[in-house]
Amino acid sequence: MAGDMDRSLGLLLNLTPLLTSAFIWPARIHASVHFPVEVAESGIPPVYWCTAHYVEMLLKAEVPLVHSVFKMSGFTPSQMCLHWLTQCFWNYLDWTEICHYLSTCVLMGPDYQVYMCVSIFKHLQPEILQLTQSQELQVFLKVRRSVTLYTHNIPSNYYNN
């Protein structure tokens, strides 16, 4: 956008009517036409009652060791995902990875939020398993770090296994 206010406003106005915007821009859920009025007025973003639930289910099925580590550590993977998602991964991923995340969610749908969180956990599995012993898992996952996922190198059959 290069600091162009008109282009930025145009982007936001075009993003607003999309269902995805309620997931990646939770502050504007009250104006969403995609949710019942009661849900929109409750102020509870769909990342809490939808994304977090699916992250838990998918992580348990696809990366069971990481799911078990979270269970033993006393906090849930969905808590960590909510932390990342409310910050739009700002303190966690590189700017290019954040742009990939936003573009993917807008183009492919809000379910890719779930896949992004699970892929980060899968990518970090060795470190997560190692940090279980030292009781530093939550600090490790919250501290500013640069996770490079190399999403452009993921084979097309990666999620089919």
TrEMBL record:
Its main location: other. InterPro entries: BROMI_C (IPR055392), Rab-GAP_TBC_sf (IPR035969). GO terms for biological process: cilium assembly. Residues 1-22 form the signal peptide. The keyword Signal applies. It comes from the Eukaryota. This is Protein broad-minded. It comes from Liparis tanakae.
